[in-house]
Structures are given as C-alpha cells and as structure tokens.
Amino acid sequence: MSIWKTKPELDFLNGWRGKGASDAMGIEMIEAGDDYLKAKMPVDDRTRQPFGILHGGASCVLAETLGSVAGSLCVEFGKQMVVGLEINANHVRSAKEGFVYGVAKPIHLGFTTQIWEIKITNEQDKLVCISRLTLAVKTLPAAQQ
After folding, report:
1. Cα distances (angstroms) measured from residue 57 to each of 1, 49, 89, 112, 129
2. Does 37 map to a domain?
3. Sign of CA pseudo-dihedral 140, 77, 12, 85
4. In this structure, are residues 31 and 40 in contact, taking their beta carbons and an 8 Å threshold?
5. How many domains does the chain have?
6. Is residue 5 part of a domain?
7. Which of 36, 42, 74, 141 is the most exposed place for a label (fewest CB within 10 A)?
C-alpha cells in the first residue's frame, strides 16, 4: 500500500525544487517506491570539506531535502506544507568520490508531525550517514492555496 497522497513523479520532483541548495549540490531524485523516496548526490568539490571527504553538512542537506520532498507528497498538496523541526545525523564513514545515495522512509506520518529516517550509502552500499528528520505539517494560509 502506498503512503503517497501525491504520486511521486521524478521529472516533476527534480524540476519542482527550483534554484536552491539541493540544485547547487547536484541532488537528483532517482526512484520512488510505495513507501520510500531515493536520491543521489555527487561527492565532488561542491559537497566535499577541505580534507577531501564528504562534508557532514552536505549529508544533512541530502537528508533534509529527501525527507522534506517525501513529506510534501504525504500531505494535501496546495493546502498543506511541511517544514523541518529537527534533524539529527550520525556520520558513520567517509566518502571521497562518486555518488552517495539517500533513501527516505517514514517512521511516523501524523496530522501535525512526520518523522523520517534517511539512510545515506556509498556506491558499495555501505552506510555513510543515518539521519532522522522531524517535520511539522502546516496548513497554508488561504491566500496561498
């Protein structure tokens, strides 16, 4: 059974974000299942820290992007929105090149909050970072609906 209120169309999701951090860092949505959303992000000069490894903040941007986009698809599009309340990340191993892949899955989909788990792995499917994102579900003002 699918968790989505709005079907995740990858072309739409990749064009929807506009010009922001996720675009600047090369994040691309690549797969959607009944209960998950997957994206990839390059490990390159945009996402590395000065020692040549993936910046922990870049992992957080990937996690928050994935969780927020997924969360947006689980509310009434055009009437509700989600915003981040808290993110936590445990950095397990470094990545130096190639791509990292994030998969967001819901832990809790409530009326006022959502909690998402985002696992980020390297190209060998080894865990790089595990993150938990809490989102607030907000009703859009009538003028924005």
Report:
1. 33, 9, 9, 27, 11
2. yes
3. positive
4. no
5. 1
6. no
7. 141
**64 noted as active-site residue:** yes
- The closest of 60, 74, 101, 97 to 7, measured between CA atoms, is 74
Q: What is the DSSP track for 12-43? A: HHHHHT-SSHHHHTT-EEEEE-SS-EEEEEE-
The residue annotated as part of the active site, out of 9, 28, 31, 64, is 64
Facing residues of 131 across strands?
Answer: 89, 118
Query: Counting Cβ atoms within 10 Å, is residue 51 exposed (0-12), middle (13-18) or buried (19+)?
Result: exposed
Decide if 2 is inside a domain: no
Q: Please, which residues have CB within 8 angstroms of residue 52's CB and are 6 or more apart in sequence?
A: 96
- pLDDT tens readout for residues 116-136: 999 999 999 999 999 999 999
CATH code: domain of residue 84 = 3.10.129.10
Task: Examine residue 1 and state whether it is found in any structural domain, yes or no.
Answer: no
- Residue 26 carries which side chain, given as an amino acid letter? G
Find the domain containing 73 and state its range.
10-144
pLDDT in tens, 81-98: 999 999 999 999 999 999
